[in-house]
Amino acid sequence: MPAFTLAGSKPGESTALRGAPGANPPANAEGDFLIGPDYVRAPELNPVEGAPKGVVRQFTMRSEDSRIYPGITKVPPGGPRDYRPPDLTHVQVYPMPYTRTVTVYVPAQYVPGTLAPVIVTQDGPDRNLPTVLDNLIAQHRVPAMVAVMIQNGGGDAQGSERGLEYDTMSGRYAQFVESEVIPLVESNCGVVITRDPDGRAAMGGSSGGAAAFTMAWYHPELYHRVITYSGTYVNQASPFNPDAPHGAWEYHEHLIAQSLRKPIRVWLQVGDRDLYNPNSLRDGMHDWVEANNRMAKALKAGGYHYQYVFSLNAGHTDRKVREQTLPEALEWVWGGYPTKNLQ
Q1: The pTM is what?
Q2: Do residues 116 and 315 make contact, with C-beta atoms less than 8 angstroms apart?
């Protein structure tokens, strides 16, 4: 069977061989893997009779209550909802209030008053995650964790509230989660979230995936585990940051190589038909496939614990890929974490 070679790899450097439909990399293996082009929905996405079922709760956050994100939009007053700024490097923004839903999964095994591991996901809620966690926890493959699924504040890309939250090159979003979201999760849902970064994971797709990595990169004292699907590791900073002028492209261009290795464990995925969006910048830094290939190479060169899954016949945040790989990704990213809190 053919082997896949990462962009920029030296001759002879290739990934593991492609598997049969439904096959994922081993949950204890590191490195680069090729899957597809046919996919099978993982059995862990289906409820299992006898497996303890966690509880899902929701609450709403309002922009006027936020000290960090009071709400913005790039759409001028009276402008069309699909407005596109003419200059993406200097986007005018306007105030725009929002509400966001936070969906919280609490495992059946949680003991009130104890410290719970947590996974924070972007663009929530995730309809599959609670069932997958029910099954993985019951099978002792991951710890009994709380899942905090946070809806974004609206819009997309430069000048939007979502872009500000997810594409910014700073620790601001992680600070928002820590100071404004986690306290509400604890008070509304009757849980206590661990402050141990080894017991904390972040997950997301597209810009939400870049945000998950950014949470751990800028705040490794808060997060050590990251899952990203079709991560937006391209030049889409919002707003422009002179300390990282190429946005998240800077991770594989400069930051990972030029920084001391951080205690981050990363599972990342991209599809062969993922996004290519040169937009008005025409800067050569808007190819999602190349960006994720470069991330894998940078993580490998930096000595990071990582698993990279390149998916054939797959588009951007492809549902069929996610439905096959999510259980394996969760099990892999929580590798090495004790499961003594399981019942």
Answers
A1: 0.94
A2: no
CB 14 within 8 A of CB 3: yes
pLDDT at 299 over 70: yes
- Cα separation values, 289 from 13, 133, 157, Å: 18, 29, 18
CATH number for the domain spanning 88: value is: 3.40.50.1820
Domain membership of residue 164 as a residue range: 31-333
Question: Tell me: the pLDDT tens digits for 8-67?
Answer: 444 334 455 466 889 999 999 999 999 999 999 999 999 999 999 999 999 999 999 999
Query: Would residue 227 count as lying in a domain?
Result: yes
Two structure tokens written together for 88: 């993406």
% of the chain beyond a pLDDT of 90: 85
Helix (H, G, I), strand (E, B) or coil at 223: coil
What is the number of domains present in the chain?
1
Mean pLDDT of the chain: 93
**Mean pLDDT of the 216-235 span:** 98
Three state DSSP letters for 45-100:
HCCCCCCCCCEEEEEEEEHHHCCCCCCEECCCCCCCCCCCCCCCCCCCCEECCCEE
Whether residue 77 is contained in a domain is answered as: yes
pLDDT tens digits along 205-217: 999 999 999 999 9
Q: Is residue 23 part of a domain?
A: no
